[in-house]
Amino acid sequence: MSEARDLAVEMAVDSLERNRDLLPPARVDRWIGAEAGPAPTASSEAPLDETPPDETALSESSSDGADSNGASGNGIEDDTFDFAVGDHMFTAISTPGHQADHHCYETTIDGEGVLFAGDMALAPFRPVLLQIGLDGVEAALGAFETSLDRLGARSVERVFPGHGPIHADYTDALDRDRRSCRRLVGGLAKRLDADGSGSSGGSGTSDGDEARGDEGTAGTDAGRTAAGLARERTDGEREFAYLLPEVVTGLARLDATGRVRVSTDDAGVRRYRPA
User: Of the four listed, 4, 11, 123, 148, which is most buried by Cβ atoms within 10 Å?
Assistant: First the structure.
């Protein structure tokens, strides 16, 4: 735990230094020392009214969702803790889901509650559910929902994210992400139900799935694969790499709630059918 704390403090100090121009200079100097180096130049950091500089290092390692015993609801140890940078206090909040080791950092600046959010509470979009690092992608959705609950319990007035603009729409961003997660699971359920009702015609195998070999020759009568469902959404490899983990974790939720039947074929491929 001490090693994790030391790493979190190091990342927080590094991010404060890299983003001096976004914070009151006197406070940054007092927190981390003026000798830490000059403020970033305009060529290395985006101006305040454009996309803010990358806060990922500050925020890539957190979430709360802990029970009374200090263990999180998704099996990840609750490592939320307070620490000082100079004479200023920060709270590190474990927020897995996008990445397993993601953290956000909460503090107060001039009486205003702020959150260095990294890849959480983004204004333009919900972060992709990857959960790479600890429990695996199947746990991404549950971990992310736990993170949203943890952040929802904090009093935050301004968000410094790793992507998109600095904003004050904290609660709205969290609520939007909750709705997006529900749509993810509901959309998968509808697609599987449509296959089960035979609405796709014939064996139910889409041309796209057959051409790519994602469903093999078994077709959707034998169940859909996560890869086949993801391929329906995009032809791009980059987009597919992001969509596939979301489909996997969404299907895991449907399986856990009894809404799908799961089988494994001779090749070890998992297939999903409506329950």
Answer: 148
pLDDT of residue 269: 92
The Cα 261–Cα 274 span in angstroms is 6
| 147, part of any domain | yes
Same domain? For 203 and 252 the reply is yes
Q: Give the model's confidence band at 171: pLDDT under 50 very low, under 70 low, under 90 confident, else very high.
A: very high
End-to-end CA distance of the chain: 43
238 is a domain residue: yes
- Evaluate if residue 76 carries a pLDDT over 60: no
R_g of the chain computed on alpha carbons: 22
CA-nearest of 110, 117, 116, 114 to 25 is 110
pTM over 0.70: no
Helix H or strand E segment including 103: strand 103-109
Residues 159 and 225 in one domain: no
The answer to whether 99 and 105 have CB atoms below 8 angstroms apart is no
